[in-house]
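Protocol check, entry for the methods section draft. Step 1: assemble the input record (protein sequence plus ligand SMILES). Step 2: submit for complex structure prediction. Step 3: store the structure tokens unaltered in the notebook. Ligand used here: zinc ion. Step 1 record:
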Amino acid sequence: MPTDEPSNGRDTVEYGTCPACRYVMLPILPLSPCGHDDQPVLTPLTESGIVYSWTAVQRTLEESTTLAMADFLEGRLRITAPIIDSAEIAIGDRVRVTLGRDTPFGLYRVGN
Ligand SMILES: [Zn+2]
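Step 3, stored output:
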């Protein structure tokens, strides 16, 4: 598993892989969407993903959240989460996943 860059002290999130069919999931659900009962194998998601799309959500007059969809693991895992620490994001940017503040997960930009 390649590691693109240091995590800069951010929490690393683990994704699950079904041992029966290799289906990957995040979050890890009690009942895997693939339908197998096997306990998923947990792996730290240390590699970056590519932003596929994003949208800005205006929460209040002053406050907006940028939500991005990013593809990880050569497109096997798509994660939708808020961008942390920045409103600047573009399609094709590289992001990593960490624990979120108001949501289970957050994404932060690491490059383009
Ligand atoms: Zn499975």
